Each structure stands twice: as C-alpha cells, then as structure tokens.
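Narrative summary of target 7.
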Amino acid sequence: MSYQVSNRWKKHYWLVLLVLGMAGLFIHLSFWSIPPQDLLKEDIYYIWLEGDRIVAGENPYARVLAGDMRLNDKYATYFPLAYLFAALVQKLGVTDFVGWLYLWRPLSLTFHLGLVALVLRHFYRRGLYRLGLAAAAILLLGRWSLYITRVHHLEFAAIFCLVLSLVLLRARPKLALLAFSMSLGIKQIAIFLLPLYLIYLWNTGTKQRRLPDLGIGLAIILSIPVLTSLPFVLWNAEGFTKSILFSATRAEVSHIDGAPSIDVVVAQGWPGLVGIRAKLLMLSLMGIVYLSYLKEKAGLLVAAALVMMIFLYFNSVLFLQYFLWPLSLTLFALVEAVPLTLTDD
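Modeled conformation, tokenized:
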C-alpha cells in the first residue's frame, strides 16, 4: 500500500511539474524577445563585459580604485565565478552579447524551474498538494520572478543552489555545503546565512569530531569563492577587497523611492550614519536570529528566512531582485515543522 501511495504522489508531482514547466517556458519565451540593446544597463550585460575584460587581460576589480567607495560605476562586486564563466564562454567562441544571451536565457529558465520543482516537492512530501501548487505558482509567476526573468539577473541560479543546499543539508551534508558554496560564488547575498551553517555543523557534530568537521565544512563552503577569487587577489588585492566590500559602503541612492530603510531616514539628522555604521542595526538583528538558532532550537529554514528578511528590510540599498531571496526561503519555512508523510522510496 505504501508503495502505491508513493508511486501515486510521484506521478502527480511530475504531472503538475510538467504543467508548471510549460507555463514557465511560455513566460520566459515572452521575455526572450526583448532586444539585447534594452538590456545594456542591466547586470547581465556587465557580467558579459567583465568577462570580455578578463579575456582582454584586464582586471575587472581594479576600476573601483578610481572611485570613492560610495558612488557606483557598475563595479565588479560579485565573486568572480560568473565573470569567469562569461570569459570562458567568450574564449569558446561566443564573443558578442547576443550570443551570451542565447546561452544564459535557457540556463536561467532551468534554474527557475529547478527552484519551482524544489518547493513543489517540499510541500508534496508533506501531503500538502494544493498548498504546494500555490507555493510553486508564486515562485513561477509572481511579480519578483517576472522581474528577474525580464532583466535576466543571476538570482534564479544563486537561489536555486541555496535552496538545494538547505534541502540536502541533513541527508547529504557535503554536497549541500558545496551547493551553498556555489550560491555564494554566483552571488554572495546568502553570506549572511554562513553563521547558521556553522551553528548547524557544530550542533550536529560529535564532541570528538566537532572542530575537525566544522573546519572541513567551512573549507567546503569557502571553496568556490576562494579558489575563483585567488588569482584576482594575487593580481590586485586592494582592488578585489574594495570591490567586494563596495556593496557594504555604497551610497543609499538605489532604495525604492518612498520606502527607505531606517538608517537612511535616521541619516537625514545624523549624516555620519553611512557605510558600515549604517549596517549595525541590520547585523544586530541577524545576530539575534543566530543566537535563537543556537539557543532556542529554532528551525534552520525559519532562521534562514528571517535573516534574509532582515537583509531585505534593513539594508540601505534595495533592488527589486532582492525580494525573491526571503520569499523563496519563507515558502519552505512555512511548513518546516510539518512532518513528512511521503518519502522518495
């Protein structure tokens, strides 16, 4: 009987996922007709451009040295994985931006549908079929997903790797940590979740193996960002460091009009509250979540969702693609405490 139930939910899962996949393909195709010249101000163009600079022998992180660490001039602020991928693509013969888009668009679609598949499975394994369909539809068709689809940002790839990591953490910890490393390598927004991972490794380790396992886990997490960054650190350590730190010091000119963060409001009367100092409230609130996860047995998904929500609500600079980070994790956290009723067996 249990085999029949398991087989039935799997068939239903794949049927629903097929329908959602067709809807997702239709949505993505409708945005693929956007002319490449309309994307020349978006990050996806500058990722291709940084790859072009690498191929030409230029250091993409050196340009920040000519700035003031406040005003942005489309500096290379991500770890180099995406830039190196763009450079590799160009070395393989795709030398123009149009060709880069032809490659990136189906990749972005694949990661988007992968994220939808993960959330649908998360609900289905708990017997929440209708709720799972609603949650998957939010990630597939919601306004933040449509925005990312339109501007071709890296979010689907980075968030998919992050969610995959959280889903696999208990059963396949090393693979999960590598997926988290990949997420950081693509876009380091999830770096604020690093303390939660370290707490998890500490709590789940045996007394004899805690420190070694923690060290190995941290090494896996840092592997992709460190290995890809090392050549650029050796090339120009100051430029690389300042480029990566620029996101924490940049001017708060990019917040959504009419909805500034609390530090932007306070800075109107306290002009010195900028840069790193403006992040103290945000970091303090995150610290409270870390402490809760350590001491109060809060669920990992709940803690992760709350940390990303704090980032969204308190970071000085806000872009529309940021909304998808806490939304994705919140959908998983909503039913974290619901026991599994179906397995993959």
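The chain has 15 helices and no strands.
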